[in-house]
């Protein structure tokens, strides 16, 4: 029962439990369905959202895919292009590598084939590269190869007697070479190997520390240099022989030329008919032309040999120009050509120049002007054109009224052996060397020469020179006109000369009156009586005697100074006291001032300015005593005849020994000394006379047929006062007497 009850109860419980379970299950199912529905809705929403996201992502991926496809296409295109470029670059790189290899091969072969040695040392002075030419210098020493140190190579050179060390000891030489190697700037050095080769080492330091050494083979160069030195010695010996030959020939030619030219000049002054005078003048002019040719050849030979030397000295430029013009005055007088000097009053003084060379230039230019001028004038003008750092620029021009030079010929007149005139018109003799020599001298003096000319009108040659001034040198005393002289009458019919003199007088405050003949002079005198009269000897309208007579009538007692082309012809007028003074044309300004009148306190200065005799002793004899030493009888005759008519006592000596004896016996006032004489030459005789009592101050003038500058310098070195070269001219001889005769000497005819 219990069992049934329990079963019933169990069944009841089961029913009740089933009911509860079903209800619960149903509730759970309902709740689950609700949850499921909510979950479904949520999932559906999430799915929709995910679907939207997926859709958006799909669109995005689609765009990316499209972009990537486009990018991939571009990359593929670029890859294709790069593939081609890579191929080209590879080909270019290969070609460049091939070229580099070829260049390296060529460079290596070039270095290997160099006749000069080439080597490279590293920073540790180890040889890392050397061509065969470099190593061949050490062919007897197998040790010298790549890897050897520089110092060891130097030691081999020094201690193995491989290189001539000259005066160096091996240790000192090695030290010198190593010091050179380590110097900041490595100087080249010449090495003379004992096996006969010579090299010049040129070493350089590279930026990376390496040293590059180049051994230039100078063996053949030294051999060639030795040959050149020998050839130069032979050429110099030949030039010396040529110069000696020319000098000897000049001397031998000048000696007989002195007799020929001198006698011809003397013959012209004798009483001859027209035909005889023409013959004598032809001989004289031909002889002078021959002397000019000899001088030109000697000068050109010396200049061609490079022997043009300049010896600057303190000079009086105005007197230098004046001396040249006075020397050439006889030639101008013969052609009735007026010589005029216009010197700038304001030029600096003193100046420094080679007086001999300057005289040579002026002689050539003025001589040419006279030579090519048949009538008119030759005007030499010197003016200052400015100051420089070292001195003064001075222009000297020589103007003439001669035949002129055509434009076509002006470019070649300064060349050697060139003359202006055509072959059909060979009226003028010459070598064509004069202007070429002049150009070389002017160029050596640092100046320039030029010409301006018009055919048939005349020419103007000019030189421009920078002459150094000498402020520390004693300046020439300035000669001033006496202030009491207020007016000067100038009687001259030469316009240019008259105007130059008038301008210079006016610059000193003097009033000038001018006239061309006696009638005009009288009219000027009537207006204003002059204090002085300056009279030209060569008036075309009247003779000087007539004018002097008219002046004596209208202005008696007024001093008259005569400007003379022939000074000797005016001596009689001086003796008759019809003129106060006679001056040679062209006139030196200081001489003119002294002749017109200077203050009494300047009398010594005036005398010194007017003539060198003022600084010499007074004449000890009534008649000037002249001693002439000359071994050639013809030259003795020429000399004595040239001085004929002058107031002097001439004694002859045939050699230097006789000259010394005659000096002791006669005590002459002036000595003319030939240089080349037997027994004792002129140099020895001069030195002997200078050593005797009273011989230190006697003027000795050398007369020589040697015309070379060096020879003249040697003659001057023995103590002579001046040198005259043969053939002697009468004008030069008389001027030498006037310049060196004692003060107060009277050279007028007895």
Give a description of the structure.
The protein is α/β, with parallel strands linked by helices and 750 residues long. It folds into five domains: 8-106, no CATH class; 117-217, Beta-Lactamase (2-Layer Sandwich); 317-469, Histidine kinase-like ATPase, C-terminal domain (Heat Shock Protein 90), CATH 3.30.565.10; 487-597, Response regulator (Rossmann fold); 624-740, Rossmann fold (3-Layer(aba) Sandwich), CATH 3.40.50.2300. The protein has 20 helices and 22 strands. α6 packs across α9. It is elongated.
* Structure annotation, total helices: 20
Q: How large is the share of residues in beta strands? A: 15-25%
Structural class: alpha/beta
Q: What gap, in angstroms, lies between the N and C termini?
A: 223 Å
List the quaternary state of the chains.
single chain
Level-2 CATH architecture of the largest domain: 2-Layer Sandwich
What is the strand tally? 22
CATH class of the largest domain: Alpha Beta
Within the CATH hierarchy, at the fold level, what is the topology of the largest domain? Heat Shock Protein 90
State the helicity in percent bands: 40-55%
Which value, in Å, is the CA radius of gyration? 56 Å
Q: Tell me the major beta sheet.
A: 7 strands, mixed
CATH homologous superfamily title of the largest domain: Histidine kinase-like ATPase, C-terminal domain
Q: Overall 3D geometry?
A: elongated
Mean pLDDT: 79
């Amino acid at each position: 029962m219990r069992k049934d009850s329990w079963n019933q109860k169990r069944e009841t419980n089961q029913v009740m439990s089933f009911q509860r379970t079903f209800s619960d299950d149903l509730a759970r199912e309902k709740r689950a369905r609700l949850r499921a529905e909510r979950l479904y809705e949520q999932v559906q929403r999430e799915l929709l959202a995910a679907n939207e996201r997926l859709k958006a992502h799909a669109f995005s991926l689609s765009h990316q895919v499209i972009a990537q496809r486009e990018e991939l296409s571009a990359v593929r295109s670029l890859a294709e292009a790069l593939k081609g470029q890579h191929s080209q670059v590879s080909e270019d790189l290969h070609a460049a590598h091939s070229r580099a290899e070829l260049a390296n091969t060529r460079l290596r072969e070039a270095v290997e084939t160099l006749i000069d040695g080439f080597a490279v040392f590293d920073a540790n002075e180890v040889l890392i590269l050397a061509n065969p030419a470099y190593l061949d210098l050490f062919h007897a020493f197998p040790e010298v190869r790549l890897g050897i140190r520089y110092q060891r190579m130097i030691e081999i050179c020094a201690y193995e007697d491989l290189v001539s060390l000259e005066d160096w000891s091996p240790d000192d030489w090695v030290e010198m070479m190593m010091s050179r190697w380590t110097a900041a700037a490595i100087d080249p050095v010449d090495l003379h190997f004992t096996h006969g080769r010579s090299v010049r080492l040129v070493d350089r330091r590279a930026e990376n520390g390496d040293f590059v050494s180049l051994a230039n083979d100078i063996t053949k160069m030294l051999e060639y240099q030795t040959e050149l030195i020998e050839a130069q010695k032979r050429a110099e010996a030949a030039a010396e022989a040529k110069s000696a030959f020319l000098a000897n020939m000049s001397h031998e030619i000048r000696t007989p030329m002195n007799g020929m030219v001198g006698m011809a000049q003397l013959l012209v002054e004798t009483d001859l008919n027209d035909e005889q005078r023409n013959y004598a003048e032809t001989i004289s002019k031909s002889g002078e032309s021959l002397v000019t040719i000899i001088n030109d050849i000697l000068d050109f030979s010396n200049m061609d040999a490079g022997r043009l030397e300049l010896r600057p000295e303190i000079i009086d430029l105005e007197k230098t120009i004046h001396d040249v013009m006075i020397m050439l005055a006889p030639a101008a007088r013969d052609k009735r050509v007026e010589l005029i000097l216009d010197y700038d009053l304001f030029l600096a003084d003193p100046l420094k120049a080679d007086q001999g060379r300057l005289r040579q230039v002026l002689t050539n230019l003025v001589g040419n002007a006279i030579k090519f001028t048949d009538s008119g004038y030759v005007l030499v003008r010197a003016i200052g054109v400015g100051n420089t750092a070292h001195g003064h620029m001075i222009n000297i021009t020589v103007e003439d009224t001669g035949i002129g030079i055509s434009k076509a010929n002006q470019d070649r007149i300064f060349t050697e052996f060139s003359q202006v005139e055509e072959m059909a018109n060979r009226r003028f003799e010459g070598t064509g060397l004069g202007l070429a020599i002049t150009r070389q001298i002017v160029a050596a003096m640092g100046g320039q020469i030029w010409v301006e000319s018009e055919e048939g009108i005349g020419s103007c040659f000019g030189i421009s020179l920078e002459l150094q001034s000498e402020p520390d040198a004693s300046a020439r005393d300035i000669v001033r006109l006496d202030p009491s002289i207020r007016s000067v009458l100038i009687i001259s019919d030469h316009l240019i000369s008259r105007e130059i003199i008038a301008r210079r007088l006016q610059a000193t405050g003097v009033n000038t009156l001018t006239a061309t003949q006696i009638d005009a002079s009288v009219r000027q005198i009537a207006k204003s009586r002059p204090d002085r009269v300056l009279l030209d000897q060569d008036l075309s309208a009247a003779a000087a005697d007539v004018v002097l007579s008219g002046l004596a009538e209208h202005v008696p007692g007024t001093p008259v100074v005569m400007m003379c082309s022939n000074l000797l012809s005016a001596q009689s007028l001086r003796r008759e006291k019809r003129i106060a003074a006679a001056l040679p044309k062209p006139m030196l300004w200081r001489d003119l001032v002294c002749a017109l009148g200077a203050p009494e306190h300047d009398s010594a200065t005036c005398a010194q300015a007017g003539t060198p005799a003022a600084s010499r002793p007074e004449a000890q004899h009534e008649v000037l005593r002249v001693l002439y030493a000359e071994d050639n009888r013809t030259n003795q005759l020429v000399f004595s005849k040239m001085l004929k008519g002058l107031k002097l006592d001439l004694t002859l000596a045939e050699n230097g020994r006789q000259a010394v004896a005659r000096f002791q016996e006669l005590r002459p006032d002036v000595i003319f000394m030939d240089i080349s004489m037997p027994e004792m030459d002129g140099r020895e005789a001069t030195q002997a006379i200078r050593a005797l009592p009273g011989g230190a101050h006697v003027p000795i003038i050398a007369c020589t047929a040697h015309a070379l500058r060096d020879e003249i310098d040697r003659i001057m070195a023995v103590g002579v006062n001046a040198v005259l070269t043969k053939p002697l001219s009468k004008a030069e001889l008389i001027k030498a007497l006037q310049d060196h005769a004692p003060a107060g000497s009277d050279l007028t005819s007895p």
